[in-house]
Amino acid sequence: MIDWQYNLRQAIRDPVHLLELLELSNLEYSTQGLSLLVPKGYVKRMRKGDPNDPLLRQILPLQAESQQIAKFIHDPVGDLAAEQVPGLLQKYQGRVLWILTTACAIHCRYCFRQHTKFSTSQQQTILASINADPSITEVILSGGDPLILPDNYLNKLINSIAKIPHIKRLRIHTRLPIVLPERINSALLTCLTQTRLQPVMVVHVNHANEIDDSVKQAIQSLITAGITVLNQSVLLRGINDNITALSNLSETLFSVKVLPYYLHLLDRVQGAAHFEVSESEAIELLEQMRIQLPGYLVPKMVREVAGMAYKKPL
Ligand SMILES: *Cc1c(COP(=O)(O)O)cnc(C)c1O
Ligand code: SF4
User: Fold this and answer.
1) Residue 94 main-chain phi, psi, to 5 deg
2) Which of 34, 56, 294, 296 has a C-alpha 20 to 30 A away from that of 117?
3) Is the CB of 171 within 6 Å of ligand 1?
4) Pocket test for ligand 1, best of 77, 85, 97 (most atoms within 8 A of CB)
5) Over 80: is that where the pLDDT of 1 sits?
């Protein structure tokens, strides 16, 4: 069996090493801000010698990140204001989002939670808070990446959630099936599917090149286990801001039986301004997708507005 935790420890953290592997030793990078972190299996999907590779661009620290730009702030979506108890966010009716960890297997340069300093309450405190509110029917495990936690930890946690009678669904927001697909092992599949809770997983893919055979296998095993798998993406300048990339993404997702769910406009987080696509360009791309793709392959294009009761459609 492949040891995902070993592979995570072996992930690349040194830009010099990364650029050597990609035969791009002359490319400029920054040593400031969020550190570089990328698993080797994800690097294998990058094109050697291409400084504009859409996977490389998602993880390489650049000088442009240190620019201070008005409106690009630390907590652009108002996460901290939505905390019920530390570590538990409620913005939307019936759903709570549990920040289980701030750790990830990859550091995405545009991550809207990269500066947020969450503290987490004791599990018992969060469970009691969910238990006390019968209007909550869905618990979303998020972070960071919740699947970075060990199987036995997740197993106990999910069993505790399943004991709360008003919870119907368990949702997992994770990028691990994409960036470290060996994480999807049989122990994890069992713990996600053994309770009465209906499991839903929302993965995060921004470009079709992220989906290789290893990802395909991981997703296949999730679906075979009975988990509904949806995808969310971020519209990113230089990565997927053209109709070819977006329609390939939807087509490739569906070829592995994943439905495109959300296409988010970039959250205005400090350091990510160079990734922004304007609202008018975004609307033009959405129109093109509607023309070219079957309706079920057109994701909902949304912007998260702090304080709104749902993610705002464009
Ligand atoms: C995005 C989000 C959700 C989930 O919203 P859906 O529209 O149901 O996908 C829930 N809670 C928080 C805090 C969120 O940011
Ligand atoms: S995996 Fe998700 S939470 Fe982690 S850095 Fe990337 S976007 Fe942020």
Assistant:
1) 80, -10
2) 56
3) no
4) 97
5) no
pLDDT of 57-84, one tens digit each? Answer: 999 999 999 999 999 999 999 999 999 9
CB–CB of 105/148 below 8 Å?
Answer: yes
Beta-bridged to residue 204, according to DSSP, are 232
Tokens linked to 206: 């921004």
Tell me how far the alpha carbon of residue 130 is from its chain's centroid: 24
pTM of this structure: 0.98
Nearest 10 degrees: Cα torsion 46, 299, 242, 181: 0
Ligand closest to 169 (CA) is: 1
Residue extents of the structural domains in the chain: 4-66, 80-313
The partner residues of 98 in beta bridges, in order of sequence, read: 88, 141
CATH number of 80-313: 3.30.1320.10, 3.10.50.40, 3.20.20.70, 3.40.50.1820? Answer: 3.20.20.70
What pLDDT, on a 0 to 100 scale, did the predictor assign at position 148? 98
Name the residue with tokens 């070829």. Answer: 255
Name the closest ligand to CA 236: 2
